[in-house]
Specification:
CATH superfamily of the largest domain: Spore Coat Polysaccharide Biosynthesis Protein SpsA, Chain A
Strand content: 15-25%
Oligomer: single chain
Helix content: 25-40%
CATH topology of the largest domain: Spore Coat Polysaccharide Biosynthesis Protein SpsA, Chain A
Low-confidence stretches: none
Largest sheet: 9 strands, mixed
């Protein structure tokens, strides 16, 4: 009975909708865990996973819950490496004195050196092939390690991350975060992969492990460096980790630990420097919650690339209007305007004069105002290796969001991210405010590398503009390249002029026929609404 009561903790939430989801998807029983344990023991590949847990003045109850969640793992081949960073309050030692499991290793340091060095100390204690990170007051779901090892039976993984939720002060689960699949540009905005992360130990050692001077963001720094060395990255779209909102936690009191965000800035600054990107600086994004960052691009990027701005209009008056609209925006850029109509053959003819190493932007006559000029930001992200196209944020005449990138639900429905929401809506995971990877952007304004257009022989003939561009995006995604939505660039659109339903349906039919999925839209999110709500 006591065991069953413990397992019920994973389905308790003050959020009714989330509690229903938990009951349907994370409802554990002793029988279920026994079955998972049997399967785990029958796995052909059963590597040891070393869980690193640096601690400092932990709350005894919360520490016990964290350790118990490890002891409850259905996958048995693990070790827990606990390292105390010279705590002042030793009341938690009673908890450790009651532990008898040989898989738990404990070390108490003789001086305080910070969480980065303490994490490195724990790393050096590990004997497993993989290393997982865990905070002293958080909890793993019982199938956390099992889920990872199950994936390893079918594919090689160097970096694994899962979805997570949070534990409130009353003990219930809430604040779920269902993440996208691997999104390199999103990671430059905040540490979205955090909790639950597992790394191949050899790779961690190759990049130098945890670095002193990045206290509080040492895991962020590690992830940024690790993911530059491998493409064997896997996101598991299921809640495996609960981040506790305790009094000492960053989840509860972010302003108590400002050094964490200074370290985050430093980690991103190091990253863009390693990648030789034309960046002027990195700051915290003050429009969002702490821990979100913004890259400021150097003006040298303006003269470094030729821009071809393709103006698409129903008539000459419309393309002239667009030219007038953008002349002030591009005054300091090297820009060539090219006017055309919506006919794909005419657009393709216009594109034959572009330079391979230039950037090509498309703007159609549904655009009526430049609300915020983030053209330099779109160029910055377009300069990144692997990014082939960029888009922006659109608002309508009522100052409501029209979309900030497009998603395709598992049902095949096209979702306009946060359509109808207030312009200043921050969105789930900050998606309306920060650059992120998407499968599609709205074609009324977008940019692309000239080389990518030429390599694909421009657009497919015999189709309308909307379908042709969406099909082009599909080709980009299928080739393993990326599209980034950059909401710092915001345009006002006249949605009453839009007429693309027939082309949308044709494109979506093709998408579903090819069995594609939108890897940047978590399958646990709604396929009906456009607010990134939970699917229940």
């Amino acid at each position: 009975m006591e065991d069953e009561i413990f397992l019920k903790r994973f389905t308790i939430s003050a959020w009714r909708e989330y509690e229903l989801w938990l009951f349907r998807n994370r409802n554990f029983s002793l029988y279920k865990l026994q079955e998972l344990n049997k399967r785990a023991n029958n796995f052909k590949f059963k590597p040891k996973v070393s869980i690193i847990m640096p601690i400092y003045n932990p709350d005894p109850y919360e520490l016990r819950q964290a350790i118990d969640s490890v002891l409850w793992q259905a996958y048995p081949y693990w070790e827990l490496c606990i390292v105390d960073d010279y705590s002042e309050n030793l009341s938690y030692l009673k908890v450790l004195s009651k532990l008898s499991d040989h898989r738990i290793k404990i070390k108490i340091k003789n001086k305080n050196t910070g969480i980065a060095e303490t994490s490195q100390y724990a790393l050096e204690m590990t004997t497993g092939e993989y290393v997982a990170l865990m905070d002293q007051d958080d909890e793993l779901y019982p199938d956390a390690l099992y889920s990872f090892i199950d994936i390893l039976q079918r594919r090689e993984v160097d970096f694994f991350y899962s979805d997570r939720d949070m534990i409130s002060s009353s003990g219930g689960r809430y604040m779920h975060f269902f993440k996208p699949d691997w999104s390199p540009e999103y990671l430059l905005s905040f540490n979205y992969t955090s909790h639950f992360e597992i790394y191949k130990k050899g790779l961690v050692l190759d990049v130098g492990g945890f670095r002193k001077g990045y206290e509080g963001s040492q895991d962020y720094d590690l992830t940024l460096r690790i993911t530059e060395q491998t493409d064997k990255i896997y996101h598991h779209p299921l809640i495996l980790y609960s981040w506790r909102q305790s009094q000492s936690s960053i989840a509860s009191s972010p302003n108590m630990k400002s050094y964490i965000f200074e370290s985050g800035i430093k980690a991103i600054a190091d990253t863009v420097r390693r990648r030789n990107l034309p960046v002027k600086g990195v700051t915290e994004d003050e429009t969002l919650w702490r821990g979100h960052y913004k890259i400021t691009w150097d003006d040298s990027i303006k003269s470094g690339k030729k821009i071809f701005l393709i103006l698409i209009g129903r008539c000459l008056e419309e393309t002239d209007r667009l030219r007038n609209l953008f002349e002030d925006v591009v005054r300091s850029f090297d820009v060539e305007f090219i006017s055309t109509d919506y006919d794909i053959e005419n657009i393709n003819r216009a594109l034959k004069n572009i330079h391979r190493d230039g950037y090509v932007y498309f703007c159609d006559d549904n655009i009526i105002e430049v609300v915020s000029d983030g053209l330099i930001d779109t160029m910055g992200y377009l300069s990144m290796d692997g990014v082939s196209a960029v888009g922006c944020k659109f608002i309508d005449s009522e100052n409501k969001i029209f979309n900030v990138g497009l998603s395709i639900a598992t049902s095949g429905r096209l979702l306009f991210s946060y359509r109808g929401s207030p312009r200043d809506e921050k969105g789930y995971g900050g998606v309306t405010m920060i650059p992120r990877n998407v499968s599609l952007v709205f074609p009324s304004f977008w940019g692309c590398k000239g080389s990518v257009l030429q390599e694909r022989n421009f657009f497919c003939s015999g189709k309308g503009y909307f379908y042709s561009v969406m099909n082009f995006f599909k080709m980009i995604i299928k080739s393993g390249e990326r599209i980034t939505c950059v909401p710092y660039m915001c345009l006002r659109i006249d949605k009453d002029r839009l007429n693309y339903d027939e082309e949308t349906n044709a494109f979506l039919d093709q998408w579903m026929e090819e069995g594609l999925k939108d890897k940047y839209y978590n399958p646990n999110l709604t396929d009906i609404y456009e607010d990134f709500g939970l699917k229940v």
